[in-house]
Amino acid sequence: MHALIVDVAGKVASSLGLEGGHPFQDWPCQFRINRYNYTHDTVGSSGVQIHTDSGFLTVLQEDDCVGGLEVLDPAAGEFVPVDPLPGTFLVNIGDVGAAWSNGRLHTVKHRVQCVAPVPRISIAMFLLAPKDDRVCAPEAFVDAEHPRRFKPFNYDDYRKLRLSTGERAGEALARMAA
Ligand SMILES: O=C(O)CCC(=O)C(=O)O
Ligand SMILES: [Fe+2]
């Protein structure tokens, strides 16, 4: 999973025109298995509230059988179900991805709804942020037409800010605006 997420991140960076050695190999990751003990009583309720992922990017293995993941379409203001597709992973950008790319990548608001009274499992690998460095867009992403949009910030401090304010759906990122 580590090799995969480093590879995907490198390809994302290359797709933005950033060539040369990418630093993602050294960035910390977090691996998490989510289990939702859904019952008849929880159907229709929220399994995970709306949030963005705080890190750079996430590779998610959704439950092959039980759907419920929804992403917000920002233009329409509506949630769109992301139905599981067996044999695939889902990749989404998080807050660090938006800040690091100077806004070229977009952090994705999403949530998980309980759609069936059966246990649901998802497996997530998160590529977080630089190890000993602040989150800061490379110079290649900054020019007169694209001024720096975010103040450089420390990821651990940023995570604490999200926790202490409860701002987990992009609001904390807005506080980092330059
Ligand atoms: O369970 C899922 O499908 C998504 C979970 C999620 O959004 C997360 O762990 O950040
Ligand atoms: Fe998430």
TrEMBL record:
Domain Fe2OG dioxygenase: 27-130
Pfam family, any one: 2OG-FeII_Oxy
InterPro entries in UniProt: IPNS-like_FE2OG_OXY, IPNS-like_sf, Iron_ascorbate_oxido_reductase, Oxoglu/Fe-dep_dioxygenase_dom
Top-level taxon: Eukaryota
Entry-linked Gene3D superfamilies: B-lactam Antibiotic, Isopenicillin N Synthase, Chain (2.60.120.330)
SUPFAM superfamilies: Clavaminate synthase-like
Record-given protein name: Fe2OG dioxygenase domain-containing protein
Species per Swiss-Prot/TrEMBL record: Lolium multiflorum (Italian ryegrass)
UniProt lineage: Eukaryota, Viridiplantae, Streptophyta, Embryophyta, Tracheophyta
